[in-house]
## 1
Amino acid sequence: MSDKTFYITTPIYYPSGNPHIGHCYTTVACDSMARYRRMQGYDVKFLTGTDEHGLKIEQKAAEKGVTPKEYVDEIVGTFKNLWKYMNVSYDHFIRTTDDYHVESVQKIFKELYDKGYIYKGEYSGKYCTPCESFWTDSQLDENGCCPECHREVTFAKEEAYFFKMSPFADRIEKLLTETDYLQPKTRAVELVNNFIKPGLEDLCVSRTTFKWGIPVTFDEGHVVYVWIDALSNYITALGYKNNRPDEFSKYWPADIHMVAKDIMRFHAIIWPAMLMALELPLPKHLAVHGWITFNGEKMSKSLGNVVDPFILGERYGCDAIRYHILREMALGSDSSFSNEIMINRINSDLANGFGNLVSRTVAMAEKYFGGTLPEEREEAEIDTEFKNEVLKTVEDVDTAMSGTRIKNALEIIFKTVDRANKYIDENEPWKLGKNEDKKARLASVLYNLLDAVRIISTLLSPFMPSTMPKVWEQIGASADDVKYEKLSEFGVLPVNVTVHKGEILFPRIDVEKEIEALNSIIKENMEKAQANLSEKSSEKIELAPEIAIDDFAKVEIRVAKVLSCEKVKKSKKLLCLQLDDGMDGRQVVSGIAQYYKPEDLIGRKVQLIANLKPAKLCGIESNGMICAADLADGGCQVIFVDDSIPVGAKIR
Ligand code: ME8
């Protein structure tokens, strides 16, 4: 085994619902990184798993009449099946209900307590009894009620343990601003300004209001709350403070933790603080990617717009799906998933670009030489330039992968695919084939193409691991020919290589037909989700007392357009929107930050309650309210207005 190690992790996912394309992105991205480093000879450890404790799981299991463990077991099975289906090569799957993890978390909690970093205090705030949840003032809804169920809250206190964050503030600030821990680093400023500068708040790390968690060993009734349990997985899986084989000394510190921006703060601030308190080395990099949205909208199971990765894989093959999501998402920014873009990309890059390069090259070797190239060669000046460009790809891809820029690595490889297709056009082998004197030249051209395909396909194998062995079979490459160390040279395939024409790698997709088919699947999903929602909500609907038409006429609802929008500092729930209301414009504060990002709203038209008395939320003036529907799963959806309706129009 190599002494170069590479340890990469995905977040451990909540098994509260089936996995979707968003979970697929992080997992497939880590898988590609892991496969890439394995190919380079690293001794790789790739960890994924599930985060199984907490109130939500306890409640969902109760709703279904099963135990929490029974509930999660089923969903964890779906996660594992999907990873198998997507050809994800994890080395270990951790479940936070595994005994070894429970044992380590209890020891970690005790050690932090013994060192004085965890202390007992009181958790106080506004409490919603039906939801069994505490809320801070800034989290409450517009009416000062529970943001989940919108019922009244009462002031309450609960005994809880807290983790002291302040001793680590300076070191964490340096970690974020002076090192390349955070990728992309542009996010460091936001973290420092929002969380460190205002003073790091201590973190509540135990609860007594639910049972489905790891018990605190020295205080009955307390269970470890969320992050100490979840984040520790990255070291407990390596045998830290448990009986699993010791891999901690070999693989820790992790090379990359990959997460989406929703949990960046926990990995950028809380996890380093925990490790500092435990006196352990810090991970080398935290790679943060954005959200995959669906046609620009938030992906939501309750809306039914989530694309089931199993369905997509069945239709287009798992490698095409892997390629599409990896090629679309750049580290740091969001990416909108669209069936149309996916199909067009599969057609252009995979069917017409790479697939065509392989099939044309192999077909010509068969047509002109019966499948086996002759030994006579005639090289031309143009070949050197082509070969150098292909070889340069290897270096460039490595630079991109070292910065976890997977999209960029694929862009580089596909530029070379285009270059190789251009090399065919430049040399016009079909003309060379007609002329007996040009057979040696033709053999050189085809050989150079086959060897370029060897390099390209080897570079593509971490991203599309199921397809590339088929390519190697077609171009007559042996297992030895496609080793990473052979990528730095041209001329690796045998001189008289024999090709084998095979199946079409990526069949061209009929765009219109497929879009129609996918839309009807989505429509069906949405109808099902809608029926599910009405079924759930019909149990609860209690109408307010009747009002007369005059009462309704008092409410002035107008169409308004969102001109700009930003998060309200110090509030997790509030967004501050500047609206064009067809009058002088106005500012509205809305409690939808958990469901929408500012960029989801900017430019969209909404329904505004225009004559609502101004109010101050978190000290910011709000002049009106925008209409949104409460969803049965606790989510919320803004009622957007068709763009053709003019701003200021009255809604009745
Ligand atoms: O947060 N786009 O689990 P989780 C991109 N258990 N990535 C997405 C996504 C989307 N639409 N949806 C989910 C948790 N993800 C905790 C983590 S780690 C110690 C504990 C991916 O099931 C993305 O990687 O909510 C995100 O960070 C993760 O799923 C959140 O998964």
## 2
Amino acid sequence: MSFDHILAPFAAALKAREGLDLPVHTPIDGSLLATLRMDTKAETTAAIGKAQEAFIAWRDVPAPKRGELVRRFGNALREHKETLAALVTLECGKIHEEGRGEVQEMIDICDFAVGLSRQLHGLTIASERQDHVMQENWLPLGPIGVISAFNFPVAVWSWNAALAWVCGDPVIWKPSEKTPITALACQAIFESVAREFGAPEGLSQVVLGGVEVGEALVDDHRLPLISATGSTRMGRAVGPRVAQRFGRCLLELGGNNAVIVAPSADLSVALPSLVFGSIGTAGQRCTSTRRVIVHRSLWDQVYERLATAVQTVACARTGSPLEPGTLIGPLIDRGSFEAMQATLAEVRPQAIKVSGGERVMHDVYPNAYYVRPAVVKIAGQPDVVCRETFAPIAFVMPYDDLDEAMTIHNAVPQGLSSAIMTTDLREAEFFKRRSDCGIANVNIGTSGAEIGGAFGGEKETGGGRESGSDAWKQYMRRQTSTTYFGHTAPQLAQGIRFD
Ligand code: NAD
């Protein structure tokens, strides 16, 4: 199968990075798309130097003017929406509709950031002293290092980059080694906009490579903030290293998201959300629904209806994510397939029923990994359920009262997204107060978030918040400033006399 027409709009950017040490395969059929060149540690260090120079110039550009650059970038993304979305699908395997959604998310955050560029508000604080003015100011922070995961190959970068640019900060991006092509494409689009705008060189840079390149960013004190998205394993390595040099970390790590289905749930509302949550993006979202905690009176029914719906969709709609009509694309690679099989093998002895889980379409795509999503009926929550397996497996388990449901819900180390299906207002409010996750939804699933809210989770999900609300504050430094405008010696705070 040739994918040249999808790569063609970005051929020049790929040509410039041609090399030998970073082969890039598409999960669609496993074929080689390109072989690129990784950055060395010295090149990464030089890129950080360039970002620092860009910072010196960019921090003094008025914020609304910085917003103007982001506005133009958002417009360029509108023009490239279809081509970039197809590339996202080709490189990470999510269906074309979701590829479009990912680029739309980039456009949305640009719009948000443009508005924000006129609202980077500080505070005026009442001073206890005569003729004093106290202020809280927000100032540009410095170059930001962004490390991203394969499953949102472009959106996560834009969440960080659009905010960082309006806040006055350059960005150096290390994309996943599994999805470097989309990163080069974004960089090419940005560069053409930045050139026309007259932005300083080095405002946006991409460095390619694996852990070593990531570590070069993590360890460099010239990057005051590292925003890292990926597995909890990665966060556990990155967090302490950044802390060691007193840098700041914004960690967006693994999830193990649950939906509670209460006795009053409207199943016509609940089931579509459960289906999308468990099999959308082939179960490869940090917010995918991994656990369904169902009131015992509905347990059999919800398991059967969910398993039937999932397998019906899977039988009819699994295939190349580029084909219109496909709803389930491939897993990213063989490692992901093996992790899914290992989890199913471990859980099988304790499971009551397992539907799906097997590899399909290997006759058509021998070098790619398409699977039937698995739906597992299980009576408890063994260790294997408490770990995140980044593949389409949904565990359906029972509860007897809401307190017990919340205990089961919160008994995993991750704390990203959560939901309850209920028509009982009291249950809904109780759930929102007790869920230990960064996201708690009512009557919508765990998967999929709008850019307007702060996105992220607690516990082993890392505690970071990206995107909307006041997430921008992480890309700036807070300064408290007191000014005295009187004519005699200024008073000391707390009434201290030092005559
Ligand atoms: P991964 O942890 O394997 O890799 C993520 C990124 O971290 C890659 O760019 C990788 O090169 C880099 N990296 C890995 N170890 C590193 C180290 N020691 N130092 C510096 N960089 C390092 O994750 P993945 O397989 O690409 O993505 C799937 C994981 O990401 C899942 O756990 C998923 O839940 C999580 N994820 C979380 C969010 C979120 O917002 N919470 C979003 C998307 C994905």
